[in-house]
Amino acid sequence: MGLSFKIILFAFLALNTKAQNIQLLSYSDKNTPVAFASLTFYNDTLLLGGTYADENGLINCILPENCSIVKISRIGFRDSIIETINLQDTIFLLEELSLLNEVVVLPDTNRLTQFIGFKKERNSQSYIAFEGAQFITKIENAFNEERQVKSFVFYVRKSKTRKNAKAKVIFFENENGKPGKQLAIEKVISIENYSKGKIEVDFKETNLMLPKEGFYAGVEWIGCLDEQENEVKSINAEDCQLALIVNDIIGQRILMQSYQRNIFLHSDFYDINKNILDDLSMIPAFGLFLYQ
To answer: How many CA atoms lie within 13 A of 6 on its CB side?
Structure first.
């Protein structure tokens, strides 16, 4: 690529994007940042991309030139939809009142637990996640009653991540075998340079319950925080890759079990096994420890 072409390309990109530094704060406590909220960019209803706030609620927001609307989302807060012409440097997010009034019932930690879901199997593969990617699978409830969740478990392999690599554990209602409304409980975790192994995320201090119909549980990849520039970087960077373990179920086609989407590119989930040509199904190695 010639130097003159590089200069022209850089000038074109500069003209077609606009940058703005934004701080997200809680409305009820204006000194509290809203960490790891997602910002989604739209041209009317067309998705254009997005990014995340960092742990201090800061975003170096680079808007596409044709972006007309920014949607800001974080569990525990109401969605904020703002026209770009009204975008301010400081944005206050309103808390969900139902969550503020919720009473948390702590379980007896001496109770026995039982694993349910999918452990890592011998026939498994790595599935690279990209910034904004959500992977979920259905966790069936084999009991005749709802059970309280102690922890969520997933597995990673060969992840090239910095210690500041982040992901969210997320949950969705089961609506007749498809992901429904997202549950109002999630956790942001640090991957911390796992090369392989099991990651267990504690939920015992929440009111997370596995209902009779089960639910969908999984992981949303945030990305890596660049310590020098103080912004979340794309998963495309060589040093920022999350490799999730996915089990290969040979000889079966299992639909309406596991789903994927990128929240910055698609609003709907798609069944990851729907278009596989071979007699094979892929199920992420996700599971729960439940209190008995």
So the answer is: 3
Domain assignment present for residue 108? The answer is no
| Low-confidence stretches of the chain (pLDDT beneath 70) | 1-18, 98-109, 158-163, 193-196, 225-239, 241
Determine contact, residues 77/37, Cβ cutoff 8 Å. Answer: yes
170 and 122 together in one domain = yes
Do residues 92 and 23 make contact, with C-beta atoms less than 8 angstroms apart?
no
Number of domains in the chain: 2
Question: Which CATH number characterizes residue 44's domain?
Answer: 2.60.40
Judged on CB neighbours under 10 Å (0-12, 13-18, 19+), 205 is: exposed
Task: Give the whole-angstrom CA distance, residue 22 versus residue 25.
Answer: 10
Give the whole-angstrom CA distance, residue 95 versus residue 107: 26
What pLDDT is attached to residue 36? 94
Q: What is the pLDDT of residue 224?
A: 78
Range of the domain at 66: 3-100
Q: Which of 152, 107, 141, 111 is nearest to 211 (CA)?
A: 141
243 and 282 in a common domain = yes
Do 138 and 271 belong together in one domain?
A: yes
pTM of the model: 0.87
Q: Under 8 Å CB-to-CB from 113, ≥6 apart: which residues?
A: 150, 289, 290, 291, 292
Residues linked to residue 95 through DSSP beta bridges, in sequence order: 77
